[in-house]
Amino acid sequence: MKYISTRGQVEPKGFIDTVLMGLADDGGLMIPEQIPVISPEELREWSSLSYVELFLQIFARYVNDEIPAADLRELAERSYSNFRHPEVTPVKKISDSLYIMELFHGPTFAFKDVALQFMGELYSYMSRKNGDIIHILGATSGDTGAAAIQGVRGKEGIKICILHPHGKVSKVQELQMTTVDDSNVLNLSVKGNFDDCQKMIKDLFADLTFKKQHHLRAINSINFVRILAQTVYYFYAYFRAQDESSERKINISVPSGNFGNIFSGFLARQMGLPINKLIIATNENNILERFVRTGEYQPGEFRSTHSPSMDIQVASNFERYLYYFLKEDAAKVSDYMHTLQTEGKIVLSQEDLEHVQRDFAAYGASNQDCLQSIIKYKNEYDYLLDPHTACGIAAYEQCSGPEEVCITLATAHPAKFDESIILCEIEQEFPAPIQALFSMPQHQTIIDHDLNEVIRQLETFYTR
Hints:
The chain is an alpha/beta fold. The chain has helices spanning about 15-20, 40-45, 50-60, 70-80, 110-130, 145-150, 170-180, 195-205, 210-215, 225-245, 260-270, 285-295, 320-325, 330-345, 350-360, 365-380, 385-400, 420-425, 430-435, 450-464; strands at about 5, 30, 90-95, 100, 135-140, 160-165, 185-190, 215-220, 250-255, 280, 295, 345, 360-365, 405-410, 445-450.
């Protein structure tokens, strides 16, 4: 297994070099040269595996034995040992047509823990094995930052800096990041939105001299290992629902902002998992819904919503899908990305649009849709949704057929977004670890949206 860039200007790399590179040196995203296909017989064998055993089977197809099997098992077991549920990502049946996979049983109560607990262990392993300094740099719309910090805090040989949009994440998300007072953690609160933060991160990784000088490593979903770790729970979810739904077609509805989570589902399907529909659920920042419905990919006006982790207009992982959509033609991907940069949009032909619509369904939930779903499912099923999962539920109701079963991914615990729950006139009890955050001091540096100021902060951080 070798890894290449979506833009075709990087020599094929092994697994570890791909992880360490993060953003490809040509500005593209790293992807496997060939996607391994799992046979129906293997899928049947996998269907009864535990979460960790399934993880090991999938990763074995991608790591080229660069990590010895015993070491990989130890990393996986350590990564998932501190989840609050023995199944790691349990699936709950809500009705005859709806299941919810709970991805929030990790340390920071969000789906990002599933990949980032492993990434923290993996980076620590690489640092110990190779004697490398690792400086992790990332941007977050709320959940990635907390999960990444939790994954590497206090680990020797690693420093982490996370940029988040000032005042545009939930209070609990902010507290989970900024109450960490470890010397290897820097929180930069940027006066801007997530897209501003993400662009500065990409600019820093694109500066190959700066990247090499400061040993920069990516924790965002631009790093392929994030995508791969998330792919595991698509298999796990499908197998759990398949046990109960007999021969009915199985859809998966995915709250989506940066396209990483839904791309993990696309990868699972390319590997042979027979998902019927992959449903993209967005909020009022609905660039992905508009793309699936109209064939036009064009960032619109940024809107603050009740589901802030999806308040994203420029979806990084869209380029990975574009590569496969364009039949793995890296030159065409480069042309499309250049068009997006110079003209501000990509427009597909009718034939190409029909192709996209075979790959995905999509629905953009309004703020009202979001709150109504929270109220409805609390009243009818006594199940409390967080606002992102509520968007996924709204998309399931719009896009899943009457004879189909749908698994909606619950991407966060509702306690992380109590601002939205309060609007629904619902009182919830906070888990003790979240309640404790409100009495802890915060540690963050508020800065202007200024790349030079980010560079100054980083250089000071790396030398202290």
